Each structure stands twice: as structure tokens, then as C-alpha cells.
Task: structure prediction
Amino acid sequence: MGVLSSLPNRPLTDGEIASLNRAEAVDLAVAVDDGTAETRGLLVATPSWVKGLALDADGWTTVESVDLDGAERYEALRACEDAVREREER
Result:
């Protein structure tokens, strides 16, 4: 089961994000704060990739994915965060 398919079709709680961080499938899960109490944007990272996820009417969607082969993790996180925030502005 992939990370995306394991997410509920609703905003995540702080506890659920903490659980993702304890999961073996990912190294890092960070909420993208949109100024509300609900997490509708998420960054998820493994040793090989970073993904920016956004919640819409159909559930969680990957809006940006960066392969870390040769890329710096910080830059990949930044690119994915920018893509999630751009999606939220729509």
C-alpha cells in the first residue's frame, strides 16, 4: 500500500501526521500550513523522493514529485511546498 492510498479522504489531524513520521514507509511528513486548523497540504519524503500532496474533492493528490537522485532534499522540499501552496490558491 502506498502512502497516498493510505491517507483518508479528509484533512489530517496532528496525530495522523505524527503517525506518518513514525511509519517505516517515510522519513518525513510535514503539514503545509494554510492558516486553517485543517491539514490540506502535506510534504512526504523518503531517501529517494519528496512529494507534495494536496487534498481536493477527490481525495489526496500528488501535485509535485521530485526524485532525489542528485537533488538536494531541501530544494526538493521547497519545490513541493511551493506547488502545494500554488494549488491551495486556486
In short: The helical segments are 3-6, 14-22, 73-89. The CA atoms of residues 47 and 78 lie 16 Å apart. Residues 3-89 form one domain.
